Amino acid sequence: MYENRRLGLAYISPYIIGLIVFTAFPFISSLIISFTEYDLINTPEYVGLDNYEYMLEDDTFYQSMWVTFAYVFLTIPLKLAFALFIAFVLNFKLRGIKFFRTAYYIPSILGSSVAIAVLWRAIFSLDGLLNSFIGVFGIEPISWLGEPVFAMFSVTLLRVWQFGSAMVIFLAALQNVPQSQYEAAMIDGASKWQMFTKITIPLITPVIFFNFIMQTTQAFQEFTAPYVITAGGPAKATYLFSLYIYETAFKHFELGYGSALAWVLFIVVAIFTAISFKSSKYWVFYSGDKGGK
Amino acid sequence: MKKIKKIMSFVVIGGSLMSTGYVQADELRMSWWGGNSRHEATNAAVKAFEKKYPDIAVKTEYTGWGGHLERLTTQIAGNTEPDVMQTNWNWLPIFSKDGDGYKDLTEYSDIIDLSQFPESALKAGQRNGVQNAIPISMAARIFYYNKDTWARAGLDFPTTWEELMAAGAIFQEKLGDKFFPMVLEGNDIMALNRSYMIQKYGIPFIDEKNKRIAYSEEHMIEYFQLYADMVANHVIPSSKYIASFGAANLYEYKPWINGEWGGIYMWNSAINKYNDNLKPPMKMALGPYLTKTGATDAGLFYKPAQMFAIGNNTDYPEDAAKLINFVLNDPDGFRAMGLKRGVPLSKVARDTLVAEGVIKNKDLAVAGLNYINVLPKKSGVSQYFENPKLHDLFEEMQQDMDHGNKTVEEAAKTFLKKSKRILRKAMK
């Protein structure tokens, strides 16, 4: 019995060690560091709540938080809607459907790579591909990366474009919807739209919820795209919070303040997730539930 | 007997090596920032080193300027910095506050020939009296212009601030809206405007004694107004316009490559990467240093261009010293390196390269250095002038002005106010 337990612990030890060394230790350390003034090189100096108090008078903190929320609220609905739409289309039994499923997933394999962000910059640059394209129709070049609103749109679009992982999960959920329910609805004379809204959507709400939580937490931590495409500009219009944390800690050598910012982001994401979970009982239907309650 | 002697000799040699603490490196790591031409030259110098010392392999880590400091900072904080690194003049107070952040190079003076370097230059690499780094070359920001673009505009290079201001409208009229006499980013503008203020008032930018900006509110407004005027007069593109091409190194932008941006206020040691990226046959040329009538000081930003240092955590300081000496003082090393880090300070390197015709007065970096040497240099530059947070604050104000979020006055006042905390912390 005990031997089995030891063996079990031995098997999971790589994960446990990894969790302690790479997650738990930095997690606790960053909390302690957030109460210090620490420039990475010299010994940290305890400053109490100074870093958190300074945040209240820091314009960049508010700007960055606002921009991050804007990014999250723009990206998530667009991405989930797009992923669900494509998954719905790819769920039909069409010729060559496997090829299309693979093709639509490819942008996600590329992930949040720097190379893709560089490509994005080349597309949206003033002399880039997009302006050359719209130029064919006689439209004047648009400063996609120089105007705050357009810059946010350009950065958002990159994340929306990488909808593959959410799409695959939606696709799996759609394939699990019992065909018998559609057949019964068809006999009752339901339209395609009615079937989609009254059968498909309610039955996949747990997956919508899962994708929503996963994508939201990722979006709050987005870094690569604004760093490479716009460097947070213009005029801090795409200065997402993770970028601010990174620059504060590693460019301005204020690791104490950077850690405090990171903890505020953690708390914001935690509250957002908690609210989402609380709200889920009103709109997420698990099998066996009665009316979603 | 023979066998015993053999064993004894191994023991003696082994013991003597252990007693000196010498450990032969299997692999050294070397890092630097720069453009493609510098990367190629340094890689060639490293290959020559590996040929001379076949037992030591060198792994090179190089990036552009952007992000290099952050990368190095995390490496140093994690004790994983390279054995040999290119470092910057103003990074010494960051990484080696008391002089113990890098190896003391005088301890390896039997390997690195320090006598090749002028005393004053070596001093610039010291912190708290410890020789933390060796300056590779000296540099200053000066004016370089795309001579083809200026010829197309039908203008001679400006000699006064007023002539530069007037050039913008002529560029716009003759070449079009996309053409500007110069292009300047935040760092360049800060240095250029500082030069203007020194020529006009003789006041340095940083007051180290009181840990603040040395300017009054009126001076600060004038400092920001100069930028606003340059944008309004079409002398330089606004930060908003530059941002529309995305985040990249200036010399990688198409308008630079195509000659739409006609000049730059840049380190003479870095100018070749800007020149190399121009679409042929366009070339750059050295311009006169803009001077106000009656100015007795050019207000140059003059400093060591880059320095080499040995990481504090290296296991192979002797081999790291060998590598530094090779690229700076060994003919095979400095020949491969050429002028990609400016005109070498090392006497043997400079003399040899002059004799071999590599250092030519017409080279942009050399011509720049010769010019810098004759310009009046009275005021020094504080190491805190290049503080990264101060620069980011300036760029924030600059962008706020360009996007209409702040007036010149508001930007100047906010800069003065926020800079206090930054400088107080930096000089703690």
Architecture blueprint of SSEs:
The complex is a heterodimer of chains A (293) and B (428).
Chain A: H1 2-33, E1 36-37, E2 45-46, H2 50-56, H3 59-90, H4 97-109, H5 114-124, H6 129-136, H7 148-161, H8 164-175, H9 179-187, H10 192-203, H11 205-220, H12 224-230, H13 241-251, H14 255-283
Antiparallel strand pairs in A: 1-2
Helix pairs in contact in A: 3-7, 3-8, 3-11, 4-8, 5-12, 7-12, 8-11, 11-14, 13-14
Chain B: H1 2-20, E1 27-33, H2 36-52, E2 57-63, H3 68-77, E3 84-87, H4 92-95, H5 119-124, E4 126-127, E5 130-131, E6 133-146, H6 147-152, H7 161-175, H8 186-201, E7 206-207, E8 212-213, H9 217-232, H10 239-243, H11 254-257, E9 263-267, H12 271-276, E10 284-286, E11 302-310, H13 317-329, H14 331-337, H15 347-355, H16 364-374, H17 388-402, H18 408-426
Helix pairs in contact in B: 2-14, 8-9, 9-18, 13-14, 17-18
Verbal overview:
The complex is a heterodimer of chains A (about 290) and B (about 425). Chain A has about 290 residues and is an all-alpha fold. Chain A has one domain: Orthogonal Bundle (MetI-like fold). Chain A is about 75% helix and about 0% strand. Chain A has 14 helices and 2 strands, in the order αββααααααααααααα. Chain A has a two-stranded antiparallel ribbon with strand order 1-2. Chain A is globular and about 75 Å long. The model of chain A has no long low-confidence stretch (mean pLDDT about 90). Chain B is α+β, with helices and mostly antiparallel strands and about 425 residues long. Chain B is about 45% helix and about 15% strand. The termini of chain B are far apart. The interface between A and B is medium-sized, with 35 and 32 residues.
